[in-house]
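Re: folding output
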Amino acid sequence: MSRRRTLDTRKKVALLVSAAAVAGGGAFVMASTSNAAQPQPQRTLSAADSAVCQGLATALKREGVRVGRKRVERLMRQAGLAGISPRRGKGFTRRDPDTDPAPDLVQRDFTADQPNRLRVTDLTMVTTLEGPLWLSAIRDAFSRRVVAWETSARADAELVLTSLEYALASREVAPGELIHHADHGAGYTSVKLTTRLVRAGVQASMGSVGDSFDNVLAENPWMLIKTECIRGRVFATRAEANLTLFEYIDGPCCPIG
């Protein structure tokens, strides 16, 4: 394997470690523990780390890079990478009992054969000393990228509607071809959002109540964002938190941005 190929492999390992939690719903993401340019002491990887390395090796093979689990482990050690466990947060879905939810058109099949066929959306809360900052994001099932996101001091219909408008403006969508999948939160069942979806020719879809697996593709990015971007930080204001989210999600190294 040439030096150039080796460097390409290391870059792919770093990206795949970071994307593992999102793509597969695993409990490990990238955590740079030291400068990759410096020699790293040998350490013993845990059984969980070894399992992640095997999954990354398999993913690399799909990308055309022939590499084994032990090589992935060595590259992780050399790059100063280690697995870290995300923290489980409480759910924020509040269903409006007076609304009729859309049917589940996805049935946990979060795959698409091309972009702009299936998008999933969800929202989460970021704590600041000024009060909660709510983050809404929309993710494309084909590219696994966030196509639009927005923040607000309130988790309401305006927040999810604004993120939808950004998503519609950023990608051309043919009427009748796109499914917009969400949970049963009040913002997603609002008249404003459902009317806008109908006008855009987008099919609304909703999973079951109280089952995170029915919208797992939309919820997994929160694990990555909160682990890599938010954990251990105290934001004085919502503006400070919003700027941090912008630098991370729209940054060049974000695996979902």
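--- second protein (sequence, then structure) ---
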Amino acid sequence: MKFNNRTTATPVKFSIVLILAAAGLFVSTLLVPVAAMATDADTTAPQALLPDEQESRASEDVVIETRQEANVPGVEERAPEADEKSATMDIEEEKQQFLSRHIYFAFNSSELDEQARALIKEQAAWMADNPDVRVQVVGYCDQRGADDYNVVLGQKRAHAVKAFLEGLGISPQRLTEVSLGKTSPVLNTEGQTDARSNRRVEFKIQPAA
């Protein structure tokens, strides 16, 4: 009995083709996700920068931060007007301190004690810092004694202070002296202790010539 080889071979070849096609489809199905993952990885992975590019990027970041800081007002920043106002207030305060210092004397005396000399030195320092200021030195007395006597005594006190200022380097052209005797008392009293406030020399700033 003889078999037909052509008839038997045809189904076998067809089966082999089907198996190979199925195997190819299966392999393609496995490769597609892998390719997609690789594509995503290439898309999201940061690109490495060259050294020059890294330095340029760092410089740009510094410039941006500097500009941002420059746009934020500093705590210590002050307007020029505020500085000028503060300086004016300081000058006025020093001027008032100068005018408020009085030189006091013992009863019936024109001698300068240590405290008086220390205060006159402070006055001289302020006048040295303000060379355009001219000052009148005014001598006073307490309520005891004759008017004429107190005028002379007040003159001696004013002259003693003026002479001490000149000895400290203050120009005589910037100083004048006058006595008001027992007029304009600080306290209306004849008690020796309280009357010390009246035995004084005051400083008056004169208008500019």
